[in-house]
Amino acid sequence: MIANAPYITAATLILLIIAGNYLGNRRATVLVNGRARDLHSRPHYYGLFVALWTGIPAALVFAVWTIADQYFLDRLIVASLPDDMASLSADRLGLLLNDIRNQAYGGITSGSVDAAVKEAAERLNAWRETSDLALWGVIAATATASLALARTRIKPRMRARTAVERLFSIFLIVCSLVAILTTVGIVLSLLFETIRFFTKVSAMEFLFGLTWSPQTSLRADQVASAGSFGAVPLFTGTLLITAIAMIVAVPVGLMSAIYLTEYAHRRVRDILKPTLEILAGIPTVVYGFFAALTVAPAVRAMGESIGLDVASESALAAGLVMGIMIIPFVSSLSDDVINAVPQTLRDGSYALGATRSETVKRVIVPAAFPGIVGGVLLAVSRAIGETMIVVMAAGLAANLTANPLEAVTTVTVQIVTLLVGDQEFESAKTLAAFALGLTLFCITLVLNVIALRTVRKYREIYD
User: Fold this and answer.
1) Domains (ranges, CATH) in the chain?
2) 157 CB-near residues (< 8 Å, 6+ apart)
3) Is it the case that residue 221 has pLDDT exceeding 60?
4) Number of CB atoms found within 10 A of residue 337's CB
5) What is the CA angle 259-261-265, rounded to 5?
6) Strand residue runs (E) in 226-313
C-alpha cells in the first residue's frame, strides 16, 4: 500500500469534494423546491461552498501530517536501534537513518547493510504503512465531517457567492504572499552568505579586482593558493556574451515578428511561426553541443582563413548560438504585442496615404514599443542566466578581455563551478558563489529599473 497510498488518499479526497459540490447544489435546490430565483446566490455557489469546506480542512490536515510524519518516524527508528547505534554522533546517525530509509524504499545505501539496519528498515516499512492507512482514515473522516457541517449551513438566504469569493480571495492572497516571501527568502539567503564572504574578502577587491582565481586551502596543512576574488573578468565575460547574443536575437526576432504579423500570408504564418518556436523547445545542452562541435570550429576556421588568432572556445561562438536560442523569445513576445496594436491605427495610417513600411515604422512599432522592450528584457535575463552553452563553447577561463575571439566565462558558470561537489561552506571559495549571485541580482534589478523608466517616458511621448 506504500506506493499507492498517496494516490488512494488523493482520490478519496477528490471524490468527497465532488460529492460535496453535488450535495450542496442539491440541498440548495431542494430547500426552495426547485425555484432558483428564491435563492440569494445561484445554486452552483452553494455546491462550491460545500466543496471548498470539504477540501480545505482535509488539505490542511494532509499538509501537517506530511510535514510531521517523517520526523516522528525517525524518532521511532532511533528509539528502536541498539544502544551502540542510537548513541552515534548527529552526523553519523543522520547517515545511518538515510541508509535505513534507502534500504526500506529500495534505494542505494552508503555501504554494507548489517542485520540491525535491515530490521530497522522492515520496521520503518510497517510503520509507514500504518501511517499511510491512518492518514487515509483521518483525511476521509475530516472531509466527511466538514462536508456534513457545511451542508447544514446552507440556507436559502445564505450569501454563498460572497463566501466563495472570499475564500478565493484568501487563496489568491496566500499565493501572492508565498511568491513575495519566496523572493524575500532568496534575497536574504544571498545577503547573509554574502556578508559572511565579505568578512573574509574585501568588497573592493571583489568588485574591482581584475584577477579571478578562487582556489584556496581548506586546512593549514594543505598547499594551495590564497585565492584571488576579483570578479571584473566574470562580469565582463557575461556582458560580452550577452551583447553578442542580443545583437543576433533582437534584430532577427523583431524583424521576423514584423514579417509574420504584417507581411506574411496567413498560410505562411501558420507554418513559419510554429517552426520558429520549435527553437524554444530545444534543450540548452543540445545548443551547447551545436556550439562546441559546429559553430566554434567554424568560427575558428573562418578567423584563421583571414589571419586572425581565434581560440578553440570563444565568446563569439557562445554568443552566436545563444542568440539563436533566444530568437523565439523575442519573436514570440514581439508578435503578440504587435498583434495587440488596434487595427484602427493601421487603417488611419493607410487612410493618410502612408505605405505599409511607413505604417510599421511610425505607428505599429512605437505603439508596441513597451511590449517589445519587455520581450528584449526577458531575452537579456535568459542570456545572463544561461550556463551550458557558455561552458561548452566559451570555456571556464576568467579572462579580462573585450575580444570576442578569446575564451571567457560568465557569472553563472562560475557559480555552478564553485558549488559542484562537496563544499566547505566556511571557505571564501564557496561563499563567493553567493556574492556573485547577489551582485548579478543587483545588476539585473538596475537594468530593469532603467528599462521601465525608458518605457514609461516613451509611452508618455507617444500618448
Assistant:
1) 5-158 (no CATH), 228-462 (1.10.3720.10)
2) 40
3) no
4) 20
5) 80
6) 228-229
Three-state DSSP at 213 gives strand
pLDDT digits over 31-88, tens only?
888 787 778 888 888 888 889 989 899 989 988 888 888 888 888 887 887 777 767 7
Q: Which amino acid is at 86?
A: A
Question: 307: phi > 0 → left, psi -120 to 50 → alpha, else beta; which?
Answer: left
Return d(Cα 186, Cα 178) in angstroms, integer. 12
Three-state secondary structure call for residue 370: helix
CA 372 to CA 177: how far, in whole Å? 29
Whole-prediction pTM: 0.69
Are 261 and 365 contacting, i.e. CB atoms less than 8 angstroms apart?
A: no
For the record, the C-alpha cell of 237 comes out as: 565575460
The β-bridge partners of 213 are 228
| 237-238-240-241 Cα dihedral, nearest 10 degrees | 110
Confidence tier at 224 by pLDDT (50, 70, 90):
very low
CA-closest candidate to residue 395, choices 410, 374, 411: 410
The answer to whether the CB of 104 falls within 8 A of the CB of 124 is: yes
> Cα 121–114–421 angle (5° rounding)?
80
pLDDT single digits (tens) 109-154: 555 667 777 787 788 888 888 888 888 889 999 999 999 898 888 8
